[in-house]
Fold these 4 entries.
Entry 1:
Amino acid sequence: MDIYLPIANLPVNMLVIIGLGGIVGLLSGMFGVGGGFLTTPLLIFYGIPPTVAAASAATQVTGASVSGVFAHLSRGTVDLRMGAVLVAGGVVGAVIGAGLFSVLQSVGQTDTVIAILYVLLLGSIGGLMAWESVQALVRRKRGLAAPPAKRRHHPLVTALPMRWRFYKSGLYISPLAPLLLGMATGILTMLLGVGGGFVMVPAMIYLLGMQTQVVVGTSLFQILFVTMATTLVHSVTTKAVDLVLALLLLVGSVTGAQLGTRISRTVRPEYLRIILAFIVLVVAIRMALGLGWRPDEIYTLEPG
């Protein structure tokens, strides 16, 4: 069943796009990640222009984040003060990312840069996840206890001036740290169409030293508003947001997330992490190979 994507300027099979959204939603429900970091590569593999894939994926992440944010707000697991600082940095980062996006479009290197960034990010994150998962499995097999978790700021965060108290996060740190973290995530969201949770959550725990109870909710709060800002900026500057594509992805992801949540209850966390690490590394390797292989179509059209 084909449907025409007005911004991507090509017909696609509607069921395939919904299926791709379902795969991302399934992974989101199984592993507790936003899944946005896999949406853009999967769309690119299917033939969607990278610019449209990144912009539309950000829009889909916005819709998918709404229910999660409201759920965490009702439980009181969102640090609104920390979230506001992260959102402020994310909006600034989205504007900076828009400038970088325009520069890359003007020199015709958008596709290449998006692919390289994905290879670096997914390769490094997948490698770290695989290493930690293998260590956890080895400890479990040998009957060893996991090392106690340590919650502390990174030394660079401690050195920053002008400290604020973030009571729900249990922190007394400079707001410059979450502001810069939000800016970095905003740039990534603008360039890659990711929610940024796969970068944000580890950074909030290991760099800022936040209490784990509020990390996911605060991350989702930031993702919701930053992806909204990113969608708006993309709509005004690159004009690459394809709402038809985003809606089809959202339909699939909502359905897939429900199934993924049920599966996650029956599988050990160690196995879930190593499966996710494998998937991430496979996508990174596929994108890396795509940088070296001659494509089937040498020329691609980007929305002007």
Entry 2:
Amino acid sequence: MSSPFTGPNRPAAGPPRLPTPPTGWPIGSYSRYEEAQRAVDHLADNNFPVQDVTIVGVDLMLVERVTGRLSWGRVLGTGAASGAWFGLFVGVLLSLFSGTPGPTFGPILVGLAVGVVFGIIFAAAGYASARGVRDFSSASQLVAGRYDVLCQPRNAERGRDMLARLAMRPPGQS
């Protein structure tokens, strides 16, 4: 008996399909993702087998940046805009599949108007149900405290030496 994980039908080498911990030896550690990316780019520019390299974010945190205060005007305006886009999409589809030859703007205008009305209704209902608990908008981002560059053991020493030479260069040079 075989499964997708064993036997002749096992997928070729490449990124794992299931979440798995990274493997390899650390060859560099950086406080910003851009620095880790620069290190891997340096390795690639110098014909290093980068398929053996992994960038791992360590000490993950969810950062929520507040982008503004919510008000009834902003909520209704955003609801109207999103409803308009959806209504416009539905109206265009209806006009494309209508049996009338030539351009027909009726379904587009009706879809747009209905979309705006329903967008406002749903936005108002959602905001009213929150009852002032969350009167702000925000954007969330997953960031790491540091970024480790790992490499498979067969090339780790060479990669560590290349990144050590990169670290000795001034920041403007690659």
Entry 3:
Amino acid sequence: MSHQQGYQQTAPGQPEQPPFGQPGYGPPTQTFPPRPTKTKKQSNVLGLIALITAALGFIFACIPGALIIGWILLPIAFVLGIVSLFLKDKVKWTGVTALIVSIVGTIVGFTVFFAVVGTSIDNALGSGDTKVATPSGDAGTNDQAAAKEDPAAKAGTRENPSPIGSVVESDDWRVVINSVTLAATDAVVAANQFNEAPAKGSEYILVNYSATYIGDDPDGQMPAFVSVEYVTANGTTVNGLDKLVTAPKPINTTSTLYKDGTATGNMAIEVPTATAGQGVLAVRPGMLADKVFVAVK
């Protein structure tokens, strides 16, 4: 037997193997698992509930008398929004939106809260240094004249309001109500495309006033420290923040004024139509000054 034949022999006790090139020595056959099909994500009911709760919380957080409801709903919406993000095969956008709305609503809620607290402190800490001078000539020219002291107990009360054009002055601010335009709804609505019509039974009025800084702060102050509100015939206070609209030629209350600087412009307020002319304006010339009431006609 040749050497090659002896090499091809199988050792005793081992199964005989086919030579190379015969069947059984080809590449192994591999079977791949089927590709998973993409399933359409289902609606996220929990995320939708979180979004609705966040929206309601945001609305209540903007209402001073209902802040507590907003503070209850917003954390609930935040937690539900987080939980909804971990639900498998559910859409995520409702949960994400709920988180954003709840966070923004919380910030707005704190802003409204501090504004309410600030107003309450102002009411409690009125400095009592407000002076009033009635107009001696044209109502629009008295903002440059110093006011003569006239105790608020005699003039400038709600029962005996000062006339339009009176100079209302504190240590820091001089305020003059130049004019009041009743039934100004058409002008206000036309001033901005986003301005909404007043509620049924109400109308917009335009209050044109001037605020002059007469204090000594070298950094100046903003006219936002001056407040002008409308008090209805039944004693309810209304201001321009109750319904946000842009007045024609609005007054700029956010730019800093330095000594003798003046800002003049309009503010729109929604008031009851039936008693619009029976209300009065509550003017506070500075954060700590006492209020003075001015007639609207």
Entry 4:
Amino acid sequence: MAACETCGNDYDMSFEVHAQGVVHTFDSFQCAIQAMAPICEHCGAKVIGHGVEVDRTWYCCAHCAREAGSNAIVDRVPAQASA
């Protein structure tokens, strides 16, 4: 058994996450997200999806990036006309 680094629970089904040369131990995905997910610089939400990064700053979505002044970020690229 290994103790979760977020909540301290000593759990027989804990798991490891290897990231940037460091090994982390968690008892649930919830604890892993709490410890490792970046935080949106605009709204404060945990970025658990793809998110967007602008100049080394993380946002949960294109809307938040635009609200913070990154106007080049779009949710999707317009469909191109078929030839």
